[in-house]
Amino acid sequence: MKKKTLLIGLGAFVALIAVGVSSAYFTAWVLEKDKAQVQYVTPINQPQVKLTNLSSDGSPIDFTYAAEQTVNAVVHVKTYTNQSTYYGGSRNQGPSLWDFFFGDPYEFDRRYNEPSQRSQKETPDLIPRGTGSGVIISADGYVVTNNHVIEKAAEIEVTLNNKQKYKATLVGTDPTTDIALLKIEEENLHYLTFGNSDDLRVGEWVLAVGNPFDLTSTVTSGIVSAKSRSLGIISGGAERMGIESFIQTDAAVNRGNSGGALVNTRGELIGINTAIASHTGDFAGLSFAVPSSIVEKVVNDIQEYGEVKRALLGIEMNELNAETVEAYKINTKDYNGVLVVGVVEESAAALAGIKPNDIITAINGFVVRNPSDVQEQISRYRPGDNVNISIVRDGKTKQIEAVLRNKAGNTDLSRSTEELISSLGATFKELTAKDKERIKVKNGVQIVEVKRGKLQEAGVRKGFVITKVNKRTISSIDDLKEVLKNVEGAVLVEGVYPGGSVGAYAINL
């Protein structure tokens, strides 16, 4: 009986193994048979989409190459400011909208620069302000960063990935796009080349490289989640005509990443990381970069002219949607394009024949879907450039040629003396005999108000009396204009404060 039971049990065990093996074989066969099908997703009435591990240009998605190409070209930027600026009015006004997106610029100082921990290089008048990132774009030391990283800095220090440190010169800034260009004196540096941000596709992999929280050479990855994004963080304010057409990604970016590189999988620079959307100041899922199409033009202008030559079309525009179509009584069901709601007199648009209620659909063949697209396209050109604008008027498509103009309403690329004075960002007054006696100077022009501009960037404060510019004596505002009219590049401004302290500032025009 026991023998019979044993045989039955053994037989059942063998049968079970046989069933298991056959089941496993059948499963393997099904997977093998269906392997070709696994490579495709074929929804009903949809074209076949092949699942692949290749990027849009056919190259493998491998982040190591892009990371290796980028880390040695991304630098750490540390700024110093005058003590009076640090403890001035802006220090105690609470968080601004700018701080909401970029983080408090003084957070670094509070965390890392208590008096006992401050750098040996500090002086009583020069203290750390904050840190950020930058990208080397040429072998001879040109570095791109954000304007808000170096704004109000009295001194800028750049540290390479190999720990070498350099004092950087501010070549030029463009608050309109939040881009700044620095220069360090070195040769044969590792640098990044500009890629074409127009070729970026939503869903494409990208890397963000920078120095978050003062941690050097940090690489994060993500995808492009949107393009032509406007946040309203640059365009606010009467003094700024902000150009916002950000690349939106989900690559982790934090304080300190500002000015760092956004690169594609080929290691090409396709954006400068600029902002995050966050209630805490730390990464919360969305980051934004200025596209390389804008950055490259800004850099080229600063290098060639010392400033950005901004071209203007001269229109007011709204996004085309159901609400604007109804409000402006536009006869269309197609919401592709931008609605012109106003045209500035004697502007490029007015002279070309563009009218309110026209719908702009393309600029030089590039399809525009929102005002940010229009801003980005126009920002690539200079005054005097011709652009072809596709519009829809009364249901019919027309092609219009427009000659872009500058803020003054002409096509001149040179800068007038009045524009130079305006760029200083200050109000001046000539000294009376009593003023000269009180301040103990023989000549000079006094600054009675300092706003956003070249003087503020250099750390010049209200009350400063300019006595010399490039060693030439200044006795009147006309003297100041005459000197600036014949100067290119930087000028040395010397003078004295009413308390007796002497000052000398290098101002890049």
Note the main attributes of this structure.
alpha+beta; Thrombin, subunit H; 4 domains; 6-stranded antiparallel β-barrel
Write the layout of secondary structure elements.
Blueprint: H1 2-33, H2 35-38, E1 40-41, E2 49-50, H3 63-71, E3 74-82, H4 83-86, H5 97-102, H6 107-112, E4 126-136, E5 142-146, H7 147-150, E6 155-159, E7 165-174, E8 179-183, E9 205-210, E10 218-229, E11 246-249, E12 261-263, E13 269-276, E14 287-291, H8 292-305, E15 315-319, H9 322-327, E16 338-343, H10 348-352, E17 359-363, E18 366-367, H11 371-378, E19 386-393, E20 396-403, H12 417-423, E21 426-430, H13 433-439, E22 445-450, H14 454-458, E23 465-469, E24 472-473, H15 477-485, E25 490-496, E26 502-508
Predict the CATH topology of the largest domain: Thrombin, subunit H
Helix tally?
15
Strand content range: 25-35%
Under the CATH scheme, the architecture of the largest domain is Beta Barrel
- Rounded mean pLDDT is 79
Rg (C-alpha, Å):
30 Å
Distance between the termini: 108 Å
Q: Kindly provide the name of the CATH class of the largest domain.
A: Mainly Beta
Number of domains: 4
The biggest beta sheet is recorded as:
6 strands, antiparallel, barrel
